[in-house]
Design a protein that fits this description.
This protein is of the alpha+beta class and 444 residues long. The chain has 14 helices and twelve strands. The protein has three domains: 7-257, PPM-type phosphatase domain (Phosphatase 2c, domain 1); 272-339; 355-441.
Amino acid sequence: MRWEQQIQYASISDVGFRRRNNEDAAAIRICPDRETWEQHGHLFLVADGMGGHAVGELASKVAVDSVPHSFFKASDPDIARALKAAIESANAAIYERSTHNTDFHRMGTTCVALALSPVGAVIGHVGDSRVYRIRGGVIEQLTYDHSLQWELARRPGANITEIAGREPRHVITRSLGPEPTVKVDIEGPHKTEPRDTYLICSDGLSGHLTDAEIGMIASTLLPSDACQLLVNLSNLRGGNDNITVVIARLGDIPGEVASAAVSNDGERETRPKWWWWLGMWSIAVIFVIGVWLALFSRYLAGIAFAALAAFAAVGMFALWLELRSKERELSLELARSNASGRGTAYRTASSQFLPESTRELSYVVHDLEKTAKQESWKIDWAHYDSVCGEATGLMEAGHHQEAFAQFATTFEVLMSGLRLYRKQLNHERKWGKDTPLPSNRLKS
């Protein structure tokens, strides 16, 4: 990634339809200047807390406060090491807080952090919150779930289908907080490309939508609209957990910057370093001087210069061998990293937009519309009819992606009514039907 690239981003953290507290948290830190970005990169973070009595909410808040603070204070030039140290620092902070109150004992949270930096996309994570990358019609999961299902599935001969049907999906094997130390997995750096879309989420999203659905929506809509539709679909399909999603999309590299980058890269790849040429010319000059001195009967001086040139040539050759050896070691290290999963995707799926997707979303919207009218949700029907009519016209004209975006808007209108309706029902259960909902809760 380059500093000059624009970046679109958005986030939503929703309590869901089955929880009273939102134990998820998210943070986005965009660097204010080039120097900060070159040292650290933009940071995106999601944490999914666990524990009763709002303990999980506290753990996730400590994580999203502590990780950015430690990361941007770090002086380590290695971004991966700095990110790992920041997450370990958050673990220590959460564990330390848990020792102050018995109700906080073994409180914990997942944590996944993405740094978009000069070296590429660097990820640090603990738990089962995920980072996806959508590129070229494919969605790739770049993190490995620290969950019981995934740990069992990696064993030789494991039957993934049987494990998924037998073992609970939400049992995680690693989190921040319960123990004084934690193992943090680092992924990458992954090479970034213009128009890459990165999505970070808690399992409240990935538990309700397939990777293909997540990828298609995230790549089709603007980040803010995609976040809203993903949350709405998750809630409509049960919403039995908190839902948090962060989306970041890289822009194109400006033309003049791209041209300079290509030129500089070409020079680095095809031209030896300047000091190598200087050394070779210096050796040649010393050797010629030695020959010239020998020809004019200054044999000892000539032999001395020739010997110096020979020793210098041997030294240059030894340096060349050492550099070649280091290059081989770097290549082997990269191969080992790829073999172990670092720098690769753990799971992939198609994220291609299909015209049928628009039709399917229209069915969802119209079914929800029927329910809204039957249960008398408070909807701005004039606005709804206008947007829905426009979406239908676009779909019939064959403009499926534009229609999909419009149906997403009508879906949000209906879901706003549903959220308000649910608030009204909960209020009536607690206070009775004759007690009106307070005005400060009328906003959905």
